[in-house]
Design goal:
Elements lengths: L13 E6 L9 E9 L6 E6 L5 E7 L6 E6 L6 E6 L5 E7 L19 E3 L5 H13 L3 H12 L6 H15 L6 H7 L4 H11 L4 H19 L5 H4 L6 H12 L16
Antiparallel strand pairs: 1-2, 2-7, 3-6, 4-5, 4-7, 5-8
Length: about 270
């Protein structure tokens, strides 16, 4: 999988960091991330999550109640609000997977998990048990690396999952601009076969996934440029008549309302 670091919106109520995984996991895991509530922001915090083309395993630990929860967040194509615990000592960790790569550890049809967040225990009780043991001893970048390095050696990819990842790679390299017909043709597949692969391994249709990657390419250029006019940054990706609607659909804000400080900058 080609290097891919989607841009996320950050919450004014939390501190947020991203960490690169071990190089041997780079084709599987985009990053680990951590979110910690700022002082005095309340017991429950809400954040805007923009579509990023990825899926996540998330660990929430609420210091006020002592409770914790593991969940799996499927792929979205619109923004949504996520709730996390507040209070001193609370923390959220996430493992962000490359598009389609989650299938190496969770054997569930991707389309059934798209647009939703579910308890990880409903998908893989064994995985939850192992991750919980890790969290109770030492949840860190190093321990997560060791955990997933061990698991990655147990997985053999099927020919269909390899085809799906090749199609995803093509869409990423084309920054979401290629048509579904062009992507299918490059992979010597029919559009129907491509759609079935995306239903099984990605979650969104090829068209919707491409739209997410096109949006991410725009936001990435906007952040890297230091916050230049969104309309200028969008010239390569959008017909201007569609820009307003799509930005609002994917961020909850109009193009003129977006600020550089809304986003996490990797650089």
């Amino acid at each position: 999988m080609m290097p891919f670091r989607p841009v996320v919106m950050t919450s004014p109520d939390t501190d947020y960091w991203e960490y690169r995984p071990h190089p041997a996991l780079a084709s599987f895991i985009v990053c680990y991330w951590q979110s910690v509530p700022m002082k005095g922001k309340g017991a429950r915090l809400s954040s805007v999550i923009v579509p990023d083309g990825c899926t996540d395993i998330i660990y929430d630990r609420d210091a006020l109640t002592g409770r914790y929860e593991w969940s799996y967040c499927g792929m979205f194509d619109d923004y949504f609000h996520a709730v996390s615990p507040g209070g001193d000592g609370s923390v959220t960790w996430g493992i962000r997977f490359h598009p389609g790569a989650y299938h190496r550890i969770i054997r569930e049809q991707a389309s059934t998990l798209a647009g939703t967040s579910v308890l990880l225990d409903d998908l893989s009780p064994v995985l939850v048990k192992e991750l919980t043991e890790l969290a109770e001893t030492d949840l860190s970048v190093e321990s997560l690396d060791a955990f997933f390095l061990k698991r990655s050696g147990d997985h053999t990819q099927s020919s269909r999952s390899i085809q799906a990842e090749a199609a995803v790679r093509l869409i990423l390299e084309g920054r979401g601009i290629l048509s579904v017909k062009e992507v299918a043709g490059e992979q010597f597949l029919s559009t129907r076969t491509l759609s079935r692969l995306f239903s099984d391994y990605v979650g969104l249709t090829p068209k919707k996934f491409s739209a997410v990657i096109r949006f991410q390419s725009l936001v990435s250029d906007y952040v890297r440029s230091g916050g230049r006019n969104v309309g200028e940054a969008s010239a390569s990706f959008y017909d201007q008549s569609h820009l307003y609607h799509d930005i609002l659909k994917k961020t909850g804000k109009t193009p003129s309302q977006l600020k550089l400080s809304d986003f996490y900058n990797h650089s």
